[in-house]
Amino acid sequence: MDRLNIPGQLAILSEDVAQLRKRASEEKVAQALLDAALAAVSDGVIRTERRIDVLAREPGPQGVQGERGPDGDAGPVGPQGEAGPQGEPGEPGQIGPMPKHQWDGPRLRFEIAPGKWGQWANLRGPAGISGAVLRGNGTGLDVAAIPEVTPAMMTDQITVVRDGALAQISVSDLMVLMLANGISEGEALTVKIDFEGQMIYRGEAVPGADEAAPIWRIRRIDMTADDGDVTISWAGGTAEFIHAWTDRFMLDYQGSSLNGVDDDA
């Protein structure tokens, strides 16, 4: 009986085929929707990653200052640099106050440090030769009868007594002798003498003075003239104590030549 109901069976089959086609169509739509959703998610992820990359490259706001970290170990000492050029001499400073000093009759001393005194200097010279008449070779010589000449010249001769007998020395030799023995015109001063050929540099300062300190007065004795004259000049043209002994070769000297006689000496 079922075999004879072919139309009915075809109708059932046709309905089943329609249902299958419908289901397949629905599944294709669902797959398309799923694919679209996945594509949208993928595109969102890509754009999110790009945004994150951009944000990572942009500087953020200034953060709070952190605490100072511990100091590192000191590095090794570098090599000594080359010495710089010699600077120009500075302007002379003002003359300082007179140092503290004490007198004891003809003796004088200076304070070389607070509460510390230098040695006494006796300013009284040795006694001169007594009498106005010198005796030599049994002949009396009346000193008062000898004419006085002025100014003195470096070629002049001076009569002296040596070992009880008369002798002669030149004015130039006497000057060199006085310089070499540090005669300071009656003042208790430290004296420096420097012989440079026919130039003599003489510096004076208070006892204990630093050679590099601007507290010296310096004169130069120039004996290079062919006529025998000697030029005595002061550093900077002044006898003030404003120079450094170590600068004696660089200073400007101003003075006069009076046959070796210096008005300030």
Question: In brief, what are we looking at here?
Answer:
The protein is α+β, with helices and mostly antiparallel strands.
Key words describing this protein structure:
265 residues, single chain, 5-stranded antiparallel beta sheet, alpha+beta, 2 helices, 4-stranded antiparallel beta sheet
Can you walk me through this structure?
With 265 residues, the protein is α+β, with helices and mostly antiparallel strands. It has a domain at 171-256. The chain is 23% helix and 24% strand. The protein has 2 helices and 13 strands; from the N terminus they run H-E-E-E-E-E-E-E-E-H-E-E-E-E-E. Strand 9 (190-196) and strand 10 (199-205) form a beta hairpin. It is rod-shaped.
Judged by helices, strands and strand pairing, the structural class is: alpha+beta
Major β-sheet annotation:
5 strands, antiparallel
Q: How much helical structure, as a percent, in the residues?
A: 10-25%
- How many E strands? 13
Strand order of the largest sheet: 9-10-11-12-13
Instruction: From the alpha carbons, calculate the radius of gyration and give it in angstroms.
Output: 56 Å
- String of helices and strands: HEEEEEEEEHEEEEE
Query: What is the percentage of strand-forming residues?
Result: 15-25%
Q: What global shape is seen?
A: rod-shaped
Average residue pLDDT = 75
Give the termini separation. Answer: 169 Å
* Discrete helix count: 2
| Low-pLDDT residue spans | 258-265
